[in-house]
Amino acid sequence: MKIKDIVNRDLVTLTNCEHEPIHIPGSIQPHGFLIGLTMAWNIDFCSDNISSFIDISLSEVIGKHFDTIFGTEAHRIIQDFITNEKKLSVFPLEMDLLDNTFQLTIHKSDDIYVLECEPTFLEKENLVDVYAQTMTFLSHMNSSTSLKGLCGFVAEGIRQITGYDRVMIYRFDDQYNGEVYAENCREDLEPFLGLHYPHTDIPVQARALYLKNQLRFIVDIGYTPVPIFTTDDDENKNLDLSLSILRSTSPIHVEYLKNMGVGATLTISLIHEGRLWGLIACHHYSVKNISPEVRLAAKLQGQFITSQIDLRQATDEYAIARKTSIALEKLTGLDLSDSKEPFKILISNQNLLQLSNAVGVSIKIGPTIYKNGVTPTHNQIDHLITAITDSTNDKMFITNKLRVHFPELDYGEEIAGIIYHSLGNGNSIIWYRPETISEINWGGDPEKAIIKDSKGLHPRNSFNLWKQIVKNQSSVWLQPELNSAAHYAHWLYNQIILMMLREEQERYRSQSHILKEANAELENINWISTHDLQEPLRKIQIIISRLLIEIEETPTVDVVGYLNRVSKSANRMQILLQDILKYIRIKNNKDTLEKMSLNFIMDDTLDAMKDDLLKSGAVIECQDLPEVYGTPYLMKQLFSHIIQNALKYASPERSPILKITASKTPVIINDSHKMYCQWIKISDNGIGLEQQYASSIFKIFTRLHTMEKYTGSGVGLAICKKIMQNFGGSIEASGALNKGTTITLYFPYEGCDQNQS
């Protein structure tokens, strides 16, 4: 049987260093040995150093059944341990293998059980001491109210328990650049507290492993990796060691630690809300190993931090939250309803700035911009709002690096951070912060995290203090400030809605008053037209008729002419008054609409107009018409007025032809976004009209021709429009000179609000 090692010898370059397969190095650290078992308990993987711990060679082990080498009792003990998941995840299994005592850490990698065997510690840790130290830590922990203070206690507690020379609490930012947030170290060591390290120091794949395996240590930085061997039955065979405690480390990381002068490390992951929040990084400047009991105690203290992050951050932000809450309470308590200029009063209130600790604020309501404090100009604010709305559909936009998002908007040092909230209908509120120039102390030049020379890739070897000046950004908006801004923007949005409703209510009240006055005037017109005007007109007509009879035998030309003109004027006045009465009655009509067949209505209308149609010689071509909602007698008036209008304005050059067509195709008209499902078109071949007058002909008393040429009061089509509004529909006209006119009637859907206008 052939065996081979699975050492990963792929060359790491600048283009693939962030994808280095550190989870399958094919080797381990030498302070223990590794065995990989198949589901059938065959030994498929084994580290080359097994003979350094037990009296057996690699070739004697690999490919054999576990029982053959270690016996059935060892098989049973390990099997029981594997099936007990609680034990598997807490303490290693202590047992004998070929007369040697080991601590076995076991995990499953794909379909392989990985057994990592370390010799038991000669000097057992006193668990009582470890427990006492942990309890002391817990009692001190409760005396710390801030997150930074808690991390300081954890660093001190872990150093006491583990004995490492330096313990750091390492916190990541959004880009995974790290900061030494808390530290406890030997007095003779240079402190790293406050130093920053670039994200490249802990690449993506390393952070992914820290999420999977929360505890990782290197006993001796100067170790020689031990290769893992397997049976030679697959060319690409390897073993995923993501959960391994013996896994060999990336050569670049080892060199990085050597450059720092470190001899041994322990790293504990700090995971918060599924994300790598930070690390507990323990450094020792010589070889060092710790027992499983101490490892567990250190890991527990790390979990204390992650369990307290939300609470301690809330405590840290309490003072800010209290200040912003007071400002929010004062602002929402303002009564702006009685003010004629509420936004002028609001913008001058300093609580509006304290709400989010801003230096400036602007509110845009319609075309007007109100400002207070340090803000851009009116034009710049308009451009900023346009840029935000063009780039995102969100109602909120927050940044402390405005120039990163909109490099074309340069407001200098005055504006670098904003909180933007839409208030609907183009309205908005924006808080502003100035540029805050900050100084970051890096542990070495972050631009030189990886160095390439003739010998390949290397981590930087200089960790001297390197200072960076950061510009074009404001201080970060804290969560209490963001919460207060969001709450107030929501409150202000509701206030604007209420203001609009009050204004609308006032407009309705004013319009109601105007309508009452108009109705009173119309009642007067009705009274005058029915009583005071019609009676004199009847008498004038009787007198003129008698005079005309008496002078019939000996006519006087002038007298007859005058009397004819008086008669015509009286007739016109009577027609006008009748049309006004029709118009008024339609406007005040309150009848309930009913479903009717337009075919019957059209037949009745044409029958009533039979004499006029015969006299004019008109030809009527009518399609099958739909059923609509309306009032029968108004619908007859509607068709009658339209047909009479077509006969009146018939062309003298040709016989009148009227075509009446219908459709049920839904349409949207007049940019009103109202949809109508039925339309009726009544087209004639008369004198037509210019399209520019297509809408004005529906206005009352509008005439396009003189009385001498065409009779009429100019009320007929206005009556038609009122009738269609009464039905919840609409009316339009179109045409061209000498080519005829088309009147289109639009009727609403049967299920819609029938009184909609």
Automatic annotation (TrEMBL):
Ranges of residues in domain Histidine kinase: 528-751
Domain spans labelled Phytochrome chromophore attachment site: 146-303
Kinase is among the record's keywords: yes
Enzyme class of the recorded protein, top EC level: transferase
EC number: 2.7.13.3
InterPro entries linked: GAF (IPR003018), GAF-like_dom_sf (IPR029016), HATPase_C_sf (IPR036890), HATPase_dom (IPR003594), His_kinase_dom (IPR005467), HisK_dim/P_sf (IPR036097), PAS-like_dom_sf (IPR035965), PAS_2 (IPR013654)
Any GO MF annotation of the entry: photoreceptor activity
Record keywords, A-Z: ATP-binding, Chromophore, Kinase, Nucleotide-binding, Phosphoprotein, Photoreceptor protein, Receptor, Sensory transduction, Transferase
GO biological process entries: detection of visible light; regulation of DNA-templated transcription
Catalytic activity entry: ATP + protein L-histidine = ADP + protein N-phospho-L-histidine
Family: In the N-terminal section; belongs to the phytochrome family.
Name of the protein in its database record: histidine kinase
